């Protein structure tokens, strides 16, 4: 579309390695003025590292960068007309909108700031973006959407060439999202190029001209979106042929271990499901679909109405202590916050949940005889790589921490196991090992529910996948019918129409 | 339009202004001697020391810090001034060295507060002890009389207005100007508002913070010179507990300890308010045994009034954002 | 000198047997021999340093030196917790007696209990600890008498004035026994005059507060005829106020406001010499210091002593103060 013009940014084989380990490689694209490039990929595909290289926070290890045709060693940011809007906002809450917009380049002298000019510039900038925000309001008094817009206004104030937007819509309401898109169109018309990071495929197709797809840190495709059908792009991101599985799963028993019937709360509505002993049920869905809330309600952390049965015995209303007694364990998404005693040793973390399973003689004699041996066996079982079981878990990698945590709960010999994002922030190798453990575990007859944003993970380990969207169960797939593209579209595609319906 | 920019400053000090007004009305009715020119003048003179220091403290608190060593700085400066004046007999020399010392001590506080990421409460508690100890060492805990003739800063008057009042007004105007009109003022509010954002915007955090503490030191020095001129000399218990009076004035004035915003004018009114309480008790010939109780109650009421308006504001905020939330999820 | 240590050993002998006995005996004998070789040591726990306290401490040190005692001085800087710790450390150092001017009675009582258990006699100086069960004796100024003397002279000056006479009393701190007693004595003396009205304001010993209080009092009551300062270090602040009101007339001049105070600092001395103040009661710090050390010596010897020992001060007026300069601890 801009053929003949000079690209405002072009990168060639951009790569980044941390202490010798390559996390992103071979990112190559050209960006012309007024173009929007979507950077897509699953969680952990290397989007943020790429973003950080493109906005100057990280220096690439390899590769070439050309800004307006001239090769530069690294991106510097605002001086080159490039700036980024990160997921965490960088505004000053107690300053006014006008002050926030102009703080990096105040008109007037140091001893006499020209507030008239500041306000004029701010007004002008907001008018330019076509938004109406009181420039004299404190940023903290604005809602999330307006703050996001102020952030974009601030970023585009000084960077008139390239604007990088990292998941800008996640915390926005539907009208706010529309406002944001109209601003992006406005900037596009004025020739500002944008790099747009989003996991909403319909947003990508609605806004972007071209894409760079990343998978496992490698660029797996680039091109114009009009040439690539959506299903093809999604397959590219997911990476495997549809339905292909890494595990040869055993057949679960017929016996239903856990079932819920019409469970509702303000975050989800009339959800029913059943898991058999030895079955692995995957729950897919986008962030905010209500997956975590659902399993938290099952475990009794959140209140919900509806029926919960364990071994055909009604246990609702659920409470954590009741569920624990019934042999249910819940391994949380945020292990640092919820489950891990980060300053304590591997040994203590492993045995914390079920000391009685580890310790043969709790009172007799001094010390917990058997604890060391049991933990050592467990660590070996779980393939925890740790210098010793007395090492603090803080020293372990995310994957190993997760293994310790899983091991801790699995050691209590539960009947039902709920895993929320079991491999979040875990590297590929450890991920595979955790998957193996989950499968092996189910084989012993434990009913497993896995909640994950990583679709591939669910495709790999689940017997069955249920799809949640905005608090509803919207689909169910048996393993033989697994279809990544269908699942993704079901989880995400109509999210906007959905919330629009809700909002209106 | 121009003043609109400072809308939120006006909101900050409105509560204390109303409280002060109410107290004045009450005292005017209760005591015939209260509402006289002479008494108003002496109230302002008495408030000057706290008010001037409160201006400096407001800067420090807006920048996200706190300095509990200012009473010790005041004492140290007064000791330096008294010793130097007695030794050399030169008023300008003693004055100049004292003010410069104040600047240095304040800067040291700022440097420590920013350099070691310990809470400034701890670092300034340490410097409090050091400054006070150094001053006691310097003077041997002796009282040093300062001749009344050179006490111009405390007792003089210019065009019929007592010098302490003039200094208080001058410091207030300068204080308001610095915070509202200069780049430093905006940067300081920014640093106090969010240090991470300030870092990301590469604002000169170090320079701004040190400057705020330095202003705190300078105002403490100036206040010290006024105080010893008025008291007639250096005494070793000077400035003890003053930091709490000053911080109380700042908080009464609507400045939040969390930093990022605040009101110079509010702090000055807060200082006047505190003086009015004691002045009123004196005017009413109150029993000496009720002083502390009344002081406490009046402070509590003032703080409650301030917090009530704050709670109302935050309730509205929560209501607004709750309505927005309802749009996204259901 | 040997007797108390021997007693200690005997006592322990009764209670401890076997190996412990041997160890304890060895330890104690080593302590006692080293203590024998050493001077007698007196712990001096000071609340905080200011002019009169420094003078008082110096008097104690001079008296101690005369007896060949060593003084270990610790200063709490007005912090009760610090003082608590300091007294404990004096106990651990096994001083022979402790002289204490308490920051806060309740806080130090625990530490003083330890001293008592270690059989170290405790003497409160300057500030009485009336509720303490640990203090063997108190030595300090006779504050009631001091306040009374300052009041008596003032009453004499005010005698014969017709109509209501307003007097401003600048109180010390309301939680300080000396401040309370000076006020008691002062009020008693002034009650001799039937037509007097006393306006009392607290100052917490703080000159800045005294300054403000005086200003305010004169705004409310412009006809105040006399001012009593619980400490004469506040007299310069009073002079500031009266100068600004053009009321700083000297003794003997028309419209002179009677000013008296208690203490004996240079501030009070200079003001009395100049005639701004009528006179001051000067505390006899030398005597207080000597008495403290003598009491300590007696207690160390195991003698019994009087519990409450006060030393009255001496009033000096504008007329006789210069010739008595040598007796005024603060004059320079």
From TrEMBL, chain A:
Per the record's keyword annotation, is DNA repair included, yes or no? no
Which keywords has UniProt assigned to this entry? ATP-binding, Nucleotide-binding, Repeat, Transport
Supply the InterPro entries for this chain. Answer: AAA+_ATPase, ABC_carbohydrate_import_ATPase, ABC_transporter-like_ATP-bd, ABC_transporter-like_CS, P-loop_NTPase
Q: Could you state a single Gene Ontology molecular function term? A: ATP binding
Q: Which residues form the ABC transporter domain?
A: 9-241, 251-495
The reply to whether Transport figures as a keyword in the UniProt entry is yes
Protein name (Swiss-Prot/TrEMBL): Sugar ABC transporter ATP-binding protein
TrEMBL record, chain B:
Name-wise, this protein is ABC transporter permease
The transmembrane residues are: 12-31, 93-114, 158-179, 210-228, 259-277
Q: Which family does it belong to?
A: Belongs to the binding-protein-dependent transport system permease family. AraH/RbsC subfamily.
UniProt keyword annotations, A-Z:
Cell membrane, Membrane, Transmembrane, Transmembrane helix
Q: Does the keyword Transcription regulation apply?
A: no
Tell me which InterPro entries the record gives. ABC_transp_permease
Which cellular compartments is it found in?
Cell inner membrane
Keyword Transmembrane helix listed: yes
Where is this protein primarily located?
A: membrane
Membrane topology listed for this record: Multi-pass membrane protein
Q: What is the lineage of its organism?
A: Bacteria, Pseudomonadati, Pseudomonadota, Gammaproteobacteria, Alteromonadales
């Amino acid at each position: 579309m801009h053929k003949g013009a000079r690209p405002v940014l072009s990168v060639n084989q951009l790569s980044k390695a941390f202490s010798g380990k390559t996390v992103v490689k071979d990112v190559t694209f050209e960006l012309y003025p007024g173009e929007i490039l979507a950077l897509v990929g699953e969680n952990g595909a290397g989007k943020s590292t790429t973003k950080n290289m493109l906005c100057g926070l990280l220096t690439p290890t390899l590769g070439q960068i050309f800004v307006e045709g001239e090769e530069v060693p690294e991106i510097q940011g605002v001086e080159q007309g490039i700036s980024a809007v990160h997921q965490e906002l960088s505004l000053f809450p107690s300053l006014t909108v006008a002050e926030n917009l102009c703080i990096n380049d105040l008109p007037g002298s140091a001893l006499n700031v020209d507030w008239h000019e500041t306000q004029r510039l701010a007004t002008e900038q907001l008018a330019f973006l076509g938004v109406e925000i009181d420039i004299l309001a404190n940023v903290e008094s604005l809602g999330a959407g307006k703050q996001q817009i102020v952030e974009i206004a601030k970023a585009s104030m000084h960077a008139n060439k390239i604007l990088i937007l990292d998941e800008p819509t996640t915390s926005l309401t539907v009208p706010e999202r529309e406002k944001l898109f109209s601003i992006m169109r406005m900037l596009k018309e004025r020739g500002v190029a944008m790099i747009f990071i989003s996991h909403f495929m319909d947003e990508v197709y609605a806004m972007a001209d071209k894409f760079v797809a990343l998978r496992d840190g490698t660029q797996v495709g680039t091109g114009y979106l009009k040439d690539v059908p959506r299903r093809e792009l999604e397959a590219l991101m997911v990476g495997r042929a549809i339905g292909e599985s890494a595990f040869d799963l055993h057949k679960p028993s017929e016996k239903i271990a856990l079932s819920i019937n019409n469970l509702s709360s303000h975050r989800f509505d009339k959800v029913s499901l059943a898991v058999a002993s030895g079955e692995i049920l995957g729950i897919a869905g986008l962030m905010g679909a209500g997956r975590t809330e659902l399993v938290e309600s099952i475990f009794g952390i959140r209140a919900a109405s509806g029926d919960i049965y364990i071994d055909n015995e009604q246990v609702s209303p659920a409470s954590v202590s009741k569920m624990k007694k019934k042999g249910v364990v819940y391994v949380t998404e945020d292990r640092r916050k919820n489950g891990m005693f980060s300053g304590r040793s591997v040994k203590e973390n492993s045995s914390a949940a079920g000391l009685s399973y580890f310790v043969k003689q709790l009172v007799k004699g001094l010390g917990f005889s058997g604890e060391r041996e049991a933990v050592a066996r467990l660590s070996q079982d779980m393939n925890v790589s740790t210098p010793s079981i007395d090492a603090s878990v803080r020293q372990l990698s995310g994957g190993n921490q997760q293994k310790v945590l899983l091991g801790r709960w699995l050691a209590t010999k539960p009947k039902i196991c709920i895993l929320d994002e079991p491999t979040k922030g875990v590297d590929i190798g450890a991920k595979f090992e955790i998957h193996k453990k989950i499968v092996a575990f189910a084989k012993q007859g434990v009913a497993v529910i896995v909640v994950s944003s990583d679709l591939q993970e669910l495709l790999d380990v689940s017997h069955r996948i249920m799809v949640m969207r905005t608090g509803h169960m919207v689909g169910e797939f048996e393993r033989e019918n697994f279809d990544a593209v269908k699942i993704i579209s079901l989880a995400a595609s109509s999210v906007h129409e959905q919330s629009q319906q809700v909002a209106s | 339009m121009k003043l609109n920019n400072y809308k939120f400053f006006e909101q900050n000090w409105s509560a204390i202004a109303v409280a002060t007004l109410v107290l004045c009305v009450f005292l005017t009715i209760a005591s015939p001697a209260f509402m006289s020119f002479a008494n108003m003048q002496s109230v302002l003179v008495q408030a000057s020391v706290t008010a001037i220091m409160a201006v400096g403290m407001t800067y420090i608190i807006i920048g996200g810090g706190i300095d509990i060593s200012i009473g010790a700085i005041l004492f140290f400066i007064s000791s330096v001034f008294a010793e130097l004046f007695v030794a050399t007999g030169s008023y300008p020399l003693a004055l100049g060295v004292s003010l410069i010392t104040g600047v240095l001590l304040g800067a040291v506080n700022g440097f420590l507060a920013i350099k070691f990421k310990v809470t400034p409460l701890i670092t300034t508690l340490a410097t409090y002890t050091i400054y006070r100890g150094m001053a006691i060492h310097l003077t041997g805990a002796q009282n040093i009389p300062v001749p009344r003739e050179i006490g111009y800063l405390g007792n003089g008057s210019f065009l019929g207005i007592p010098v302490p009042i003039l200094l208080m007004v001058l410091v207030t105007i300068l204080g308001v100007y610095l915070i509202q009109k200069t780049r430093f003022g905006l940067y300081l509010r920014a640093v106090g508002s969010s240090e991470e954002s300030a870092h990301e915007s590469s604002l000169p955090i170090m320079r701004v913070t040190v400057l705020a503490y330095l202003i705190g030191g300078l105002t403490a020095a100036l206040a010290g010179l006024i105080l010893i001129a008025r008291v007639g000399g250096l005494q070793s218990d000077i400035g003890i507990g003053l930091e709490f009076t000053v911080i109380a004035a700042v908080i009464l004035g609507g400045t939040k300890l969390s930093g990022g915003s605040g009101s110079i004018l509010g702090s000055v009114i807060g200082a006047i308010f505190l003086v009015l309480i004691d002045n009123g008790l004196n005017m009413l010939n109150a029993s000496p045994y009720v002083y502390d109780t009344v002081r406490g109650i009046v402070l509590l009421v003032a703080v409650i009034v301030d917090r009530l308006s704050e709670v109302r504001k935050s309730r509205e905020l929560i209501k607004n954002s709750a309505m927005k939330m309802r749009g996204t999820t259901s | 000198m040997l007797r108390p240590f021997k007693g200690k050993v005997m006592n322990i002998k009764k209670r401890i047997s076997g190996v412990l006995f041997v160890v304890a005996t060895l330890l104690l004998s080593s302590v006692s021999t080293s203590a024998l070789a050493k001077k007698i040591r007196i712990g001096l726990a000071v609340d905080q340093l200011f002019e009169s306290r420094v003078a008082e401490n110096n008097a104690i040190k001079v008296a101690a030196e005369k007896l060949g005692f060593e003084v270990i001085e610790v200063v709490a800087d007005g912090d009760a917790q610090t003082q608590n710790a300091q007294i404990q450390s004096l106990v651990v150092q096994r001083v022979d007696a402790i002289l204490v001017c308490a920051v806060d009675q309740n806080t130090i009582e625990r530490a003083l209990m330890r001293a008592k258990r270690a059989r170290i006699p405790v003497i409160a100086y300057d500030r009485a600890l009336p509720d303490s069960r640990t203090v063997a004796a108190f030595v300090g100024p006779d504050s009631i008498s001091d306040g009374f003397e300052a009041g008596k002279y003032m009453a004499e000056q005010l005698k014969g004035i017709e109509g209501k006479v307003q007097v401003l009393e600048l109180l010390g701190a309301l939680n300080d026994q000396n401040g309370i007693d000076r006020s008691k004595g002062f009020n008693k003396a002034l009650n001799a005059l039937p037509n007097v009205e006393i306006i009392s304001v607290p100052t917490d010993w703080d000159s800045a507060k005294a300054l403000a209080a005086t200003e305010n009092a004169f705004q409310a009551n412009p006809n105040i005829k006399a001012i009593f300062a619980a400490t004469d270090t506040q007299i310069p602040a009073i002079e500031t106020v009266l100068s600004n009101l053009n009321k700083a007339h000297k003794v003997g001049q028309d419209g002179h406001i009677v000013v008296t105070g208690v203490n004996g600092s240079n501030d009070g001395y200079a003001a009395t010499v100049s005639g701004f103040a009528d006179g001051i009661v000067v505390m006899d710090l030398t005597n207080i210091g000597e008495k403290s050390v003598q009491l300590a010596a007696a207690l160390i010897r195991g003698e019994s002593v009087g519990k409450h020992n006060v030393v009255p001060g001496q009033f000096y007026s504008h007329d006789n103060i210069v010739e008595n300069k040598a007796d005024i601890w603060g004059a320079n």
